[in-house]
Write a structure and sequence with these properties.
The chain is 28% helix and 19% strand. By secondary structure, the chain is α/β, with parallel strands linked by helices. It has 3 domains: 75 residues, Archaeosine Trna-guanine Transglycosylase, Chain: A, domain 4, CATH 2.30.130.110; 124 residues, 3-Layer(aba) Sandwich (Rossmann fold); 229 residues. Strands 19-20-18-17-21-22-23 form a 7-stranded parallel sheet, sandwiched between helices. The chain is globular.
Length: 492
């Protein structure tokens, strides 16, 4: 097994797969300084101003002369990126490979034909100030009734629903309405206070098509005994859900979000390519994947644009990118103030470095649709969606779009989970061994242990087991379920 990797034959850097000491050699290059695991080393002399090449693309330029064998990182490299671009459509479609593997999942088929991978009872709060009552209603219900016939009863705290204006108010309502209609919920109690901006009557009127048999509404200020009324409504929903049964369907019924957080220098080599291979498998088998984190497409966006299935999708991708850049500029923020301190410590140097690794999660399939934040999935195949890089907001947005689960790669580790199963994929074996209570799958096995096809087959088995309820994601075992809704404007 090699202890370094040159990702693309065009690259002028190698990535170390272990800690290297000064004086050791990579190929014919003697290292001039210590190089940490997952960090980059120059393979040739790189002159000041010349491009640093990784993944076959520039990830920035040298800010001083870099000798072969030197550590290539933030001290001597700077991004090439700047503000808005004018893009042209130059389609380039790849021949997509995947393994031959029949896979099925056992799911709950809802009245509208959508499939849920959980049969949970939810309280969706229209406003943050009802959180305490929501939890009290659930606790009282659990005291009185056996809930073993369903997959759990949950509510999701958030601080919004009041004192919001314009687009923020609309976004909060839209995301919560998307949750009400999510197929992982077999029943939903919409809980409001009565005086908030996000009024329950308007929420109901603008909800669109929903399963009226499986949805109830309650306004606390209109209830004489909110705990008793809440328990009664939950019981009505529970009785309708209790006999729901899973049905076996092809894996194509899954809609899976793709996310990364706490990335390191191995993320773009192991975990993200694994998700890319899974995304290609889903696309070729009629399934759906959704890639968000627009700021982490900056620097790699033209690769995605070239894979837009037609010019309409290309134009939607251009808007996706430039609208998010305009959002940064409207707040007088630097567009390319990324990666994070944890990313840099893990070996990521510039945003191009991060983005070229991040977009590995999209695989090689064509981009079939682009969604705005709050929009629901309409097309099978690979979708893009507008989200920030923030883990909680992005995961919530992916769930609201209709994803039944999110696959979350990480090189640094994170315990959080969204309101849907959030499957953590480690980029390196050290993390997987150190945090087994967080990590669901080790993609570090790609380094010298398993081929991509072998690991993908095992990963598909895990996804089917989690989707079918035979296994729980670690965030579910830990009862870590959180939501966060995008906010842009003022608070009253």
């Amino acid at each position: 097994m090699n202890d370094y990797i040159i990702i693309n034959q065009k690259d002028n850097v190698a990535v170390c797969l272990r800690d290297f000491k000064k004086g050791e050699k990579i190929l014919d290059v003697t290292l001039l300084e210590d190089i940490p695991r997952a960090h980059k080393v120059a393979l040739v002399d790189i002159k000041n101003g010349s491009d640093i090449i990784k993944y076959g693309y520039p990830i920035g330029h040298a800010t001083s002369d870099i000798k072969a064998g030197m550590h290539v990182h933030v001290n001597n490299t700077k991004t090439n990126l700047n503000d808005l671009f004018n893009y042209e459509y130059h389609p380039h479609f790849n021949k997509v490979h995947t393994i031959k593997k029949d896979a099925t999942v056992d799911v709950y088929v809802r009245k509208n034909g959508e499939c849920g991978i959980r049969n949970e009872l939810w309280i969706v709060q229209t406003v943050g100030c009802v959180s305490g009552i929501a939890h009290n209603i659930i606790n009282e219900f659990k005291k009185r009734y056996d809930t073993s016939k369903i997959d759990g009863i949950y509510t999701f705290n958030h601080p919004f629903g009041c004192s919001q204006m314009g687009d923020d108010h609309t976004m909060t309502r839209t995301i919560l309405q998307d949750m009400v209609k999510h197929p992982n919920a077999g029943g939903v109690l919409v809980l409001g206070l009565g005086c908030e901006n996000n009024q329950v009557p308007v929420f109901k009127e603008t909800l669109g098509s929903y399963d009226e048999e499986r949805t109830r509404f309650m306004i606390l200020q209109e209830s004489k005994n909110e705990i008793e009324d809440g328990v009664r409504l939950l019981k009505e929903l529970y009785d309708k859900m209790a006999n729901d049964k899973r049905e076996t369907k092809p894996i194509s019924v899954l809609r899976v979000g793709l996310k990364c957080g706490g990335s390191d220098g191995m993320s773009g080599i192991t975990a993200n390519p694994l998700l890319g291979a899974f995304s290609d498998y889903m696309a070729l088998n009629g399934g759906t994947t959704v890639l968000g984190e627009v700021p982490e497409m900056f620097g790699a966006e033209q690769i995605l644009m070239a894979r837009a299935k037609n010019e309409t999708i290309f134009n939607k991708t251009v808007s996706l990118i430039n609208d998010f850049k305009a959002y940064f500029k409207s707040h007088n923020q630097v567009i390319y103030e990324n990666p994070s301190p944890g990313n840099k410590k893990g070996g990521i140097t510039t945003l191009e470095d991060k983005s070229l690794g991040c977009t590995q999660k999209s695989g090689h399939s064509e981009v079939c649709d682009v969604l705005k934040m709050g929009e629901r999935i309409k097309e099978h195949g690979l979708n893009l969606i507008s989200t920030p890089g923030n883990d909680l907001v992005a995961t919530t947005t992916l769930g609201a779009a209709g994803c039944q689960m999110v696959l979350f790669t990480t090189g640094r580790g994170t315990p959080f989970g969204g309101f849907i199963p959030t499957v953590k994929v480690a980029s390196n074996t050290n993390l997987a061994l150190a945090k087994p209570e967080w990590i669901d799958f080790n993609a570090g096995a790609l380094v010298g242990e398993k081929t991509m096809d072998e690991l993908l087959a095992s990963f598909i088995d895990l996804i089917c087991d989690i989707a079918s309820g035979r296994k729980l994601a670690n965030n579910e075992k830990n009862n870590f379920r959180e939501i966060s809704i995008f906010k842009d404007g003022v608070m009253l």
